[in-house]
Amino acid sequence: MQQMFLLAIEVIGTIAFAISGIRLAAAKEFDLFGAYTIGLVTAIGGGTLRDLLLDNPVFWMQNSLYFSVTALALLVVIAFRKTLVSFNKTLFIFDAVGLAMFVVVGIQKTLACDYPMWVAVTMGMITGSFGGVLRDILINEEPLFFRKDIYATACIAGGVFYWFCMLLGFDPIVQQTVCAGVVILLRIFALRYNWALPVLRYEKREENPMLGRTVDPRHKK
What is the pTM for the complete model shown? Predict the structure, then answer.
């Protein structure tokens, strides 16, 4: 039962992340192969880095399911392209679901390798977010991971709740459901109420063409 539940989470996450990647590729007018590649990288990027760091066999090299699921996601975008490409909220929905599912998968697979929980939380964040980082880089967008959005923070919060439920002795399925729910809710609330982390700013200095050096604008007369 536990294995089937985890597989279902992984498939749902793969579909959601693949659609988010393909949807962005479609908005950029990529061809079918390019869109499929973006969707696949989004879906498997985080898990690949996780397995490499854990010194495990890379998951998609053991099972072609992820390639088939990505192809299914491409067909979904082709069939409903007007709806999926026209509305920005669709990207948010699929990205949030994929993020939540992969955080759970990352934590579970790390714990199965007998690593401590703090490592599992870190790997959950990597599994959930790194595919999206690769997606944004490949389509020439600033990665969400590095913006002020509640993104990686949501992954960590979900992992902490997973840990808390585990300490309370809840069933593993409850732990995973709570973790995914926290990630999705934080992403929704962050969008709804404009939650964001503080931005690291610096005061821009202007160059003085006469002196060939920068001048603090506060000292200009």
Answer: 0.85
φ/ψ of 116, rounded to 5, equals -65, 165
**pLDDT tens-place string over residues 35-87:** 999 999 999 999 999 999 999 999 999 989 999 999 999 999 898 887 776 66
Per the structure, the complete domain to which residue 83 belongs is given by: 2-197
> What's the CA gap between 108 and 166, in Å, rounded?
12
For residues 118 and 87, give the distance between their C-alpha atoms in angstroms, rounded to a whole number: 37
Give domain status of residue 220, yes or no.
Answer: no
Report the domain count for the chain. Answer: 1
CA pair distance 108, 175, nearest whole angstrom:
10
pLDDT in tens, 179-200: 999 999 999 998 888 887 777 7
In sign, the C-alpha dihedral spanning 24, 26, 30, 32 is positive
DSSP-assigned states of every residue in 176-207? HHHHHHHHHHHHHHHHHHT-BPPP------EE
Q: Helix or strand or coil: residue 129?
A: helix
